[in-house]
UniProtKB/TrEMBL annotation:
Its main location: membrane. Keywords: Cell membrane, Membrane, Transmembrane, Transmembrane helix, Transport. This is ABC transporter permease. The keyword Cell membrane applies. The lineage of its organism: Bacteria, Pseudomonadati, Pseudomonadota, Alphaproteobacteria, Hyphomicrobiales. Residues 96-325 form the ABC transmembrane type-1 domain. Signal peptide: none annotated.
Amino acid sequence: MMLHHLLGRMLTAFVTLIGVAIVIFCLLRIVPGDPVAMMISPSATPADIAALRARYGLDLGLFQQFVIWFKAVTAGDFGTSISLRRDVVELIGERLPATLELAFTALVFGVLAGGTIAVIATLLRRTPLEAVFEFLNGLFLAVPDFVWALALVLVLGVAFPVLPLSGRLDPASAPAFVTPFYLLESLVRLDFATFSDLVAHMVMPVLALGLPLAAIVARILKESLLEAMGQDYVLLARLKGMSPLRLVLQEALRNAVGPTLTLTGVQFTFMIGGTVIIERIFAYPGLGNMAIDAVINRDLPLIQGIVLIFGALFILINIATDALAVLLDPRQAHG
């Protein structure tokens, strides 16, 4: 049943990805603006313009362009960037790891912070401090990630300049990396100086992305914990003399984590999309920052490649979330 469920999800994901490819391909050619005009000199002749359009296949019909592009994509060829004159796959391969490290770090922070807040709020239920937690959690829910980013820049970057404002690593001390996963590689190599520098550059982006997620996790997990605390098996454990903290962590948490896991997976996809703005604010050299440059330059091959990669990431995360939810509760495979 588990395998059947996953195969069904993968088939749906494949169809969805094809739909994303069709939509983004058509939209980019409907919106105003000529990518050739962004890269050619004002003194270019009509023959030069025609030759450049032919080079990128822009002189063909829309359907013919899509067929040629889709065949190339299925073979792993996303084309050549118009603005950067480089292979799109190489560009994405250089920038995607930075975005993944940022997003996964923010996810870990959001889950740990939100889970801790939920447990503390559950222990403090029916006390005056519970209202304080609810107020702060509502405040964090109401503030979007880019507002947190701007506030962190003003406080920790300008008023009290304790953290770097931009970039991924100090260029003056950047060592030679073997892989594009700088954070993981520096930790494996026990290069704690580089690791600390990477973490310092990530603190503000991670906080901006992770604080709204922490608020969502805290609210959903707390509601699930309170519901679990009213179950018979928890009441029986309380009668046996188990402490409130053990009741929450040992008895209630394992049965309350299911809904929170599903919601976290959905929110993680939104978080990856949110890296576009956050990376721009902090000049973080990730895929989202490059996506904005690609849109400004009307770089069709690069935009198409980035959107497809984002779409594939969203789909994979949803499939992984569904698989974990089914493992925790096999009954969901029948739903």
